[in-house]
Amino acid sequence: MATLLWTIDDAGGGDTVSVPRTCEFLAARDIRETWFVVPKSGGNSMSEEWKTTLLTTRDGGHDLQLHGLTHGDCYEFGPPNWPATAILPSLQTQFDNNREDLLPRYTAAALLARIAEGMEVFHRELGLVPTCFRAPCGASLSLLLAISAPRDTNTCGIAAA
């Protein structure tokens, strides 16, 4: 028997139609997925309807994990990486053109504060403590790995504090 891991990024915009339909479709095939949720999409709080959708998703056996904080752009946690740059090649050019303005975002203190705020929102709004973190647009900075808490090798991301 094969094991399939299905993950979905950018669950954060409050799509209360597609998320339940996708969960229903996959659950009918005995597939559970991990939704990487943006806790403050565009800087906005989660609506009650969106929270209900997410908790119903979780109660259906699916997993909810942390995907950035606001995802206001693809540079929230570092330079974009493949596959985001393959889908939208201009991301790298835009990063290069704005490098001086963007690099100050990537201090250990700033990155840790954003992750901590995302975890706090998750806990406050959903009663959940994420155990995984996926940066928007595939951003990968060695600094992100260096500052992350010790990880359990059975999970995919940052361990809860």
Description:
The chain has 161 residues and is mostly helical. The chain has a single domain, classed as TIM Barrel (Alpha-Beta Barrel), CATH 3.20.20.370. It has seven helices and three strands, in the order βαβαβααααα. It has a three-stranded parallel sheet with strand order 1-2-3. The C terminus is likely disordered.
List keywords for this structure.
mainly alpha; disordered C terminus; 161 residues; 39% helix; TIM Barrel; 3 strands; 9% strand
The total domain count is 1
CATH superfamily: Glycoside hydrolase/deacetylase
Helical proportion? 25-40%
Shape: globular
In the CATH scheme, the class would be Alpha Beta
CATH architecture: Alpha-Beta Barrel
Residue runs with pLDDT of under 50 for 5 or more positions: 151-155, 157-161
* Biggest pleated sheet: 3 strands, parallel
Please tally the β strands and state the result.
3
Describe the SSE topology:
Layout: E1 6-11, H1 18-27, E2 33-37, H2 48-59, E3 63-66, H3 84-87, H4 90-97, H5 99-102, H6 108-126, H7 142-147
Parallel strand pairs: 1-2, 2-3
In short:
The chain is mainly alpha-helical.
